[in-house]
From TrEMBL:
SUPFAM superfamilies: lambda repressor-like DNA-binding domains, TPR-like. It holds the Pfam family HTH_3. Keywords: DNA-binding. InterPro entries: Cro/C1-type_HTH, Lambda_DNA-bd_dom_sf, TPR-like_helical_dom_sf. The keyword Iron does not apply. Signal peptide: none annotated. One of its GO terms (molecular function) is DNA binding. This is Helix-turn-helix domain-containing protein. The keyword DNA-binding applies.
Amino acid sequence: MMISEVIRHYRKKENLTQEQVADYLNVSTPAVNKWENGVSYPDITLLPPLARVLKIDVNTLLAFNEELTDTEVKKLTKEVGETASKEGIKKAFEKGNDLIKQYPGCDELILMISEVLRIYLLGLQIDEKEKYERKIIAWLEIVAAGNKEKTASMAKIDLSAIYREKKEYEKAQEILDKIPEVDVDKKIQQAVLFESMGKTDEAYGIYEDKLRKNGHETFAVLSLIIRLLYKEKKFREAEEYIERAKKIAEVFDLGAYHKYELDLWHSIERQDSERTIEAIINMVNEASTMDDSIKSKLYSHMKFDVTNNWTKDRYKDLVKRVLRKRKNIDFVKDDPRIKSLLE
């Protein structure tokens, strides 16, 4: 149950009216009504007396013992992302904040909402950006202090990245040092065990998951090396690594979009207008291939969440929106081909 449902359920169980609860807490009756309808939430200072009047503890009031399923977490997080796309970052933060108040004990939800909203903040020129960043940091710190080691470690990685971007390197390192080194991976042994038990599909699923993750990780690491080479003006070496990264994208069926993204990097570094324009056109045309691994035979035994059912046009709109905000391609934005493409 959400906190609104908890309040309503236990108020009725104790045969109390909204007016009686309001009188006890010295608040207005409409305030209690809003709590029960999920329009607003009680102030944190009111939680202990509210729990007492309902004859429950604060943990029960906040539904700390209730866990959301992975599917529910993904669904709620997706709603936050869609709100950001359609109604803007302010509304998305309001929705995220409300969900976190409803499920304050679900570290996975807090983490995913923080990560999604952080993505929408990147590269955007928006009002009160620092205020939103502080909110994300506060949420991540809650998760990082939690007792779920994997989720806490992921939150610490995000926090370290945020402080690195802020050039607060000592703080970033301090947080990174708190993440435990875990070298044991039982997944392969689990797959072999499934195979021995005759659970072939489950074994395939684990092997394919490892394969896909390794492909994405290898591509990501090569991309980071390419970025370093650009910083050192080692363009020839960067080209060699780009070709290797493209082969990885092909071998692991990651999608053509990722290859054209590498082409864009290189053409921008070279300030090559024609190749930059060509890469942008290819990225937009192949936008829908960014999720090609989901459809690949290599990963046919994996179960993907394909509830979004995005059309090709929606993928194109996403890429166009990102490209319109990129400052490092300003030198080609006046070209008629790019103007018409990004309209």
